[in-house]
Design brief:
CATH class of the largest domain: Mainly Beta
Helix content: under 10%
Structural class: mainly beta
CATH architecture of the largest domain: 7 Propeller
Largest sheet: 7 strands, mixed
Number of domains: 2
CATH topology of the largest domain: Methylamine Dehydrogenase, Chain H
Shape: globular
Length: 635
């Protein structure tokens, strides 16, 4: 009987090794994977196909600057208070369209640097941890291998076997030096979820197999390691989404085979099945090949929770558990795993002395794939890689009469990521142009990031194609916005394990991308936050001061102050990513030589900005400060 139970335990793990898909799906062909669709390096920078819906807005000049050189910079200054002609805001957004549009113009299209040749693990999951300025990267224990070993015993005992796994599957990386510190995991984090708590600790939920019902916590200290609490969740949460509420509590939605949600219990406590809420919406949005895993979930500024799955979206009251509104269907395919588009919450813009009853909040969803893309790429032989979607759609979910506003990207993209930059613009990066999520199920890497302008003056395109990386970032890629306003790029693994000889090898290199605003010719505009003269603990609605130092006379009309919550990034989803533009109450010039004080108002409540840590940026002329300052919002 011992052998029987051992086989029974190992068999699901074997199927997991074959593919990160539910193992009761139709059986896979075991023949050699097709390499169709990969046309060589020359094809990687070309535009792909896709769907078209709504007005076509494409930059006429979509050719990125050759190489990584800086552009010719021309500083232009608009009129303070000019109306924004952004069509998506023209329907009356309580003055949001009046935000300043003064910024320095540049033709610089970004530059790439290889930060680390070997990050130890392929960053399936990535989050920047506050205060300690280290990026946490981890993948899964299921493959029992990585590119870095634990420094010594104890090794992980592989459940159900006599094996010992001495590889690390989780590392902390210093974002300035690249120094790595390995962490120990016992319960599998494969395709898990997470978010930061009020003290900046990572609270991670779910995963695969023995990790599916696990809650794990990582504290912020030089010697801290994972604390794991198996059985803390009542349902398994594999490919689930975690969201932070206005009181700092967490909810976790969905997961393979569990169309439910539950609140994450306090540390050391366990949920029971009475704590689970059935969620019919996740049953209704389930295609034959899912397309509703890792739903896009964001806290609305009114305290409700916005959930998007497949092509549908609803607003849920987390207290009554009632769906209070359903929005129109978003056309042109599926957007969630394995169709795997990406989404972000657009900047929340606050006025000085904010008194609006409802603060507008918009979601931006870009890319995705046809509903049958996974079936064609993973289950059919020979493989067929359908073109991804090339549209982006915006929706203000604080309005019950909202409709999707659809624009067309310069190229198709799935498996991508969307990083909200300190200025409020969005960097669309990583991913492929054809195929689906899954092992070896995508082709044509989309190497060119695209800048989406959150606001424009009504002229030109909302999209700008930026300089490409030379490293394909496909399935399981990730990012983190850094305090110096660069963007960390990592991950990519289309293989069930660590393979160096695959079409797209398992990627452990870590890059940094410098967006357009880091044009060396704009360096004169970068301010320095004087942290010791600034308030870094905030209370809701209260005034606080940030002191800055820079060259020349500062024009208040060209200042923008934003707060950014670092997201938990995995599978094209950025959980709890949030950027808030603060209202400037006062600007006190020359409190010391070349030094100025900015008096600001903290967000009014936790529905606008959940309690916890944020990176505070001061942008001048559209150029972020030299380094952000960590601030903590307390209830």
């Amino acid at each position: 009987m011992g052998l029987f139970w051992r086989v029974l335990i190992i068999l699901p793990l074997f199927f997991a090794y074959v593919n990160c898909e539910y193992f009761t799906y139709p059986s896979r062909h075991t023949g050699k994977a097709e390499l169709a669709g990969f046309k060589g390096p020359d094809s990687l920078a070309t535009d792909g196909g896709g769907f078209f819906s709504g007005p076509l807005v494409v930059n006429d000049d979509v050719t990125a600057t050759p190489g990584n050189q800086g552009g010719t910079t021309e500083v232009t200054v608009g009129k303070p208070g000019d109306d924004i002609l952004d069509a998506s805001l023209a329907d009356g957004n309580d003055g949001v369209g009046k935000a300043n549009m003064i910024e320095a113009a540049t033709t610089f299209k970004g530059s790439w640097e290889l930060f680390l040749e070997n990050g130890g693990v392929s960053a399936m999951h990535l989050i920047l941890l506050p205060k300690i300025n280290q990026a946490l990267m981890f993948d899964a224990t299921v493959w029992k291998i990585s590119k870095i070993k634990l420094p010594g015993p104890p090794c992980r005992h592989v459940e159900g076997t006599n094996e010992e796994d001495c590889f690390a599957h989780s590392v902390l990386m210093d974002i300035d030096t690249g120094k790595l510190r390995t962490l120990r995991l016992k319960y599998d984090t494969w395709c898990s979820s997470g978010g930061l708590d009020i003290n900046g600790r990572l609270v991670s939920t779910g995963g695969y197999n023995n990790g599916s019902d696990t809650v794990r916590i990582l504290d912020l200290c030089d010697t801290c390691d994972w604390k794991e609490y198996p059985g803390a969740l009542a349902n398994g949460r594999w490919y689930a989404t975690q969201v932070t509420l206005g009181d700092g509590k967490f909810m976790v939605f969905g997961g393979r085979d569990f169309p439910t949600y539950e609140f994450v219990p306090p540390e050391g406590k366990k949920n029971t099945h009475q704590d689970v809420v059935d969620f019919k919406f996740l049953v209704e949005t389930h295609d034959p090949v899912e397309n509703n895993l890792y739903p896009f979930v964001y806290l609305s500024t009114d305290g409700n929770v916005f959930i998007f799955a497949n092509n549908r979206s609803v607003l849920l009251n987390p207290n009554t558990h009632n769906i209070i509104h359903e929005f129109p269907v978003l056309p042109n395919g599926a957007r969630n795993y394995p169709a795997s588009g990406s989404a972000c919450l657009l900047p929340i813009i606050l006025k000085p002395n904010e008194d609006r009853r409802v603060i507008p909040a918009e979601i931006l969803i870009c890319g995705g794939a046809p509903h049958d893309a996974y079936e064609k790429a993973d289950l059919q032989r020979p493989k067929v890689f359908l073109p991804g979607s090339s549209d982006c759609a915006r929706l203000d979910f604080t309005k019950r009469n909202s409709k999707w506003k659809i624009l067309n990207m310069p190229s198709a993209r799935l498996l991508g990521d969307m990083a909200v930059l300190p200025t409020g613009d969005v960097l669309i990066v990583n991913g492929a142009k054809t195929g689906s999520a899954g092992w070896d199920d995508a082709r044509e890497p989309n190497l060119n990031p695209v800048l989406y302008k959150f606001k424009t003056d009504g002229t030109g395109s909302k999209f700008t194609v930026l300089n490409p990386s030379n490293i394909p970032r496909m399935y399981h890629s990730s990012f983190a916005v850094l305090p110096d306003a660069k963007v960390l790029i990592a991950g990519s693994n289309t293989n069930p394990g660590y393979l160096d000889d695959a079409l797209f090898p398992t990627e452990v290199r870590v890059e940094k991308f410098s967006p357009h605003y880091l044009d060396p010719n704009l360096a004169m505009f970068r301010q320095e936050i004087i942290a010791e003269k600034s308030n870094n603990q905030l209370k809701y609605g209260q005034k606080f001061t940030v002191q800055i130092r820079g060259n020349g006379v500062i024009d208040q009309q060209k200042l923008q102050v934003t707060m950014y919550s670092p997201p938990f990034v995995t599978h094209g989803i950025c959980m709890n990513q949030r950027l808030i533009q603060l209202g400037i109450l006062e600007f006190n010039k020359d409190v010391a030589p070349n030094t100025n004080d900015i008096v600001l108002q903290a967000p009014m409540n936790g529905n606008i900005a959940q309690p916890g840590y944020y990176m505070l940026f001061v942008n001048y002329n559209g150029v972020p400060c030299l380094r952000s300052m960590w601030v903590q919002i307390l209830p």
